[in-house]
TrEMBL record:
BP GO terms, sorted: glycogen biosynthetic process
GO cellular component labels: cytosol
InterPro entries assigned to the protein according to its UniProt record, in alphabetical order: Glyco_trans_1 (IPR001296), GS/SS (IPR011835), Starch_synth_cat_dom (IPR013534)
Documented EC number(s): 2.4.1.21
Domain Glycosyl transferase family as annotated: residue spans: 293-453
The name this protein goes by in its record: Glycogen synthase
Matches recorded under CDD domains: GT5_Glycogen_synthase_DULL1-like (cd03791)
Substrates-to-products reaction catalysed: [(1->4)-alpha-D-glucosyl](n) + ADP-alpha-D-glucose = [(1->4)-alpha-D-glucosyl](n+1) + ADP + H(+)
Keywords: Glycogen biosynthesis, Glycosyltransferase, Transferase
Top-level lineage group: Bacteria
Membership in a protein family: Belongs to the glycosyltransferase 1 family. Bacterial/plant glycogen synthase subfamily.
Pathway given in the UniProt record: Glycan biosynthesis; glycogen biosynthesis
Length: 486
C-alpha cells in the first residue's frame, strides 16, 4: 500500500508543535505493517540544509507564481521524503508560517495551496515510478489537496487516489479572502456551502473536510466534541453530516525519542523498575532552573504553548497558594505576550520556587518531563495532547482537564480507580480556576501518600503510549477505504 502524507512540518526537520511529532513518528510505525508512507514537505531552507543529498525527480512549472521541483530525500530515522522545492514560496527567513518578527506571511494562502497542488499532481501520476493509493492530508495547510483531487476526477482527470483528511486542531482553519478563488485554481461553482465556502471566505480546512473520502482526528473524545455546536468551531454541522466518515484515532509518541531508560538529554536513566535516576533528574532540573534543591517539594512541570486554549491563564492566580504548599513550578513555553510577562514576573517574585524559560528547548523539555513529579495540562480543549503521554512514560503524574484526548489517555485517581490499580493521573472539570485548584489539592493529598503515589506512578509508566495501536488503526482505515473504492 502506497500513501502520500503531506503536512507543513515534520520532526526533526522542522517543528512548531505536535503535528511535527506525528509526521515524524507515524511513517516508521506503519512500515512494518506493509504500508509505505512518503511525506511531502515544503523545502524550507532549514530542511534543504539538513538534506544536502536531496535530488530532483519531477518539475512543476508555474506553481502559484514560480517554477518548482519535487526532490527525493531520505530523512532521519528512515523517513522517506518528497520535498517541494519552490524558492518563491519557501526560500525566506523565519518559521514555517511567520516572518522573523512573528507576523504571518501574507501569502501563506499561496504557499500552502502550492503544497496541496503538488500533492494533487503526485496523486495523478507526476512521478514516473511511484503513484500513491491514498493521499493523507494533515491540518489546514494541506486541506486543499482532497479538494483539488476530487475536482480533478470530476473534470475528466482520470482515476485519483483515495483521500484522508486529519484534523489535529480544529481551531486553526486557514480562512482566506473569497477574491482568491481564481488564483487558487478553484472553479467558481465550488464557492458554496457544499464546497470551499466558509462564512463568506474560502476555508482550506473546510475544503478538506468536505471533499476528503474519510476524516480523522486525533482522539475519540475529540471526534465527538467537534461534532457539537460548542466544540465544532463553526464546523459542527458539516462534521455531523459526515459523522459516518469521521473516526478518532489517538496520537502516540515516538518511544525511541521519549524513553527515560535511553534518553540522551537526561543526566541519569531510569525505568518503572528503578526510579533512582528520576530523583537525579529532579535535582538536575532544580539546578537548571535555579530552584531550591529539595526532594520533598512537589515539583510541577509545564511544557506548553502559552495560550488561552491551553488554560494557562488559570494558573497565575494559584501560584502564591502553591508556593505556600511546598510546591515548585518548572515552566517552559512561549505564546501570548501577556502570559509570558506574567510567568516571568512570577519567577522573579518567587525565586527558588518558580522557574520559567521562554521559548522552546528540546533537551529542557525532556528534563522537565523526567525531573518533575507531576505535569500540568489544564487545556480548555485538547485534540489529543502529547505532553501527558510523555508524562506517563516518564513517571510524572499528569493533572489534566477532562477534555478531548486528555480524557482518553489519563485515568483519574478516584477511589475506585485506586482500589482497582488502574489510575494513572488526575482529572479536573470544568476548566475553571476553582476546579484546577481542587485538582491541585487532590494532587497534593496524593503526594502526601508516598506509597500510593509510587503505585500510580508505576502504573502510568507501563501504559502503551506509542504508535503501535494507532498505526494498526490507520492501516485498517486505509484498507477499508480502498476496499470501498474497489
Amino acid at each position: 500500500m502506497q500513501v502520500l502524507s503531506l503536512a507543513s512540518e515534520c520532526f526533526p526537520l522542522v517543528k512548531t508543535g505536535g503535528l511535527a511529532d506525528v509526521m515524524g513518528a507515524l511513517p516508521p510505525a506503519l512500515a512494518p505493517l506493509g504500508c509505505r508512507l512518503r511525506t511531502l514537505l515544503p523545502a524550507y531552507p532549514r530542511v534543504l540544509g539538513a538534506l544536502p543529498a536531496a535530488a530532483p525527480v519531477a518539475a512543476l512549472p508555474d506553481l502559484f507564481g514560480g517554477d518548482a521541483h519535487i526532490l527525493e530525500a531520505q530523512g532521519p530515522d528512515g523517513l522517506d521524503l518528497l520535498l517541494l522545492d519552490a524558492p518563491h514560496l519557501y526560500a525566506r527567513p523565519g518559521g514555517p508560517y511567520h516572518d522573523p518578527s512573528g507576523t504571518d506571511w501574507p501569502d501563506n494562502w499561496r504557499r500552502f495551496a502550492g503544497l496541496a497542488w503538488a500533492a494533487r499532481e503526485i496523486g495523478l501520476g507526476l512521478l514516473p515510478d511511484w503513484r500513491p493509493d491514498i493521499v493523507h492530508a494533515h491540518d489546514w495547510q494541506a486541506g486543499l489537496a482532497p479538494a483539488y483531487l476530487a475536482l480533478a476526477a470530476g473534470n475528466g482527470g482520470g482515476p485519483r487516489p483515495a483521500t484522508v483528511m486529519t484534523v489535529h486542531n480544529l481551531a486553526f482553519q486557514g480562512q482566506v479572502d473569497p477574491g482568491l478563488m481564481t488564483a487558487l485554481r478553484l472553479p467558481p461553482e465550488t464557492f458554496a456551502i457544499d464546497g470551499v465556502e466558509y462564512y463568506g471566505g474560502i476555508g482550506f480546512l473546510k475544503a478538506g473536510l468536505f471533499y476528503a473520502d474519510r476524516l480523522t482526528t486525533v482522539s475519540p473524545t475529540y471526534a465527538r466534541e467537534i461534532t457539537t455546536d460548542e466544540g465544532g468551531m463553526g464546523m459542527g454541522g458539516l462534521l455531523r453530516l459526515r459523522g459516518g466518515d469521521l473516526e478518532g484515532i489517538r496520537n502516540g509518541i515516538d518511544e525511541r525519542v521519549w524513553d527515560p531508560a535511553r534518553d540522551p538529554h537526561l543526566p541519569s536513566a531510569y525505568g518503572p523498575g528503578s526510579l533512582q535516576g528520576k530523583a537525579v533528574c529532579k535535582t538536575a532540573l532544580q539546578h537548571r532552573l535555579r530552584l531550591e534543591e529539595r526532594p520533598d517539594a512537589l515539583l510541577l512541570g509545564v511544557v506548553s504553548r502559552l495560550s488561552y486554549q491551553k488554560g494557562l491563564d488559570l494558573l497565575p492566580g494559584l501560584l502564591p497558594w502553591l508556593v505556600g504548599e511546598n510546591c515548585q513550578l518548572a515552566l517552559l513555553g512561549a505564546g501570548e505576550p501577556a502570559l509570558e510577562a506574567t510567568f516571568a514576573a512570577a519567577a522573579l517574585a518567587h525565586p527558588g520556587r518558580i522557574g520559567f524559560v521562554q521559548g522552546y528547548d528540546e533537551p529542557l523539555a525532556h528534563l522537565i518531563q523526567a525531573g518533575s513529579d507531576a505535569i500540568l495540562v489544564p487545556s480548555r480543549f485538547e485534540p489529543c495532547g502529547l505532553t501527558q503521554l510523555c508524562a506517563l512514560r516518564y513517571g510524572s503524574l499528569p493533572l489534566v482537564a477532562r477534555v478531548g484526548g486528555l480524557a482518553d489517555t489519563v485515568i483519574d485517581a478516584n477511589d475506585a480507580a485506586l482500589d482497582d490499580g488502574v489510575a494513572t493521573g488526575l482529572h479536573f472539570h470544568p476548566v475553571t480556576a476553582e476546579a484546577l485548584a481542587e485538582g491541585l489539592d487532590r494532587l497534593l493529598r496524593l503526594w502526601s501518600r508516598p506509597e500510593t503515589w509510587r503505585t500510580v506512578q508505576a502504573r502510568a509508566m507501563t501504559r502503551d503510549v506509542g504508535w503501535s495501536r494507532p498505526a494498526r488503526q490507520y492501516r485498517e482505515l486505509y484498507e477499508g477505504l480502498l476496499r470501498h473504492r474497489n
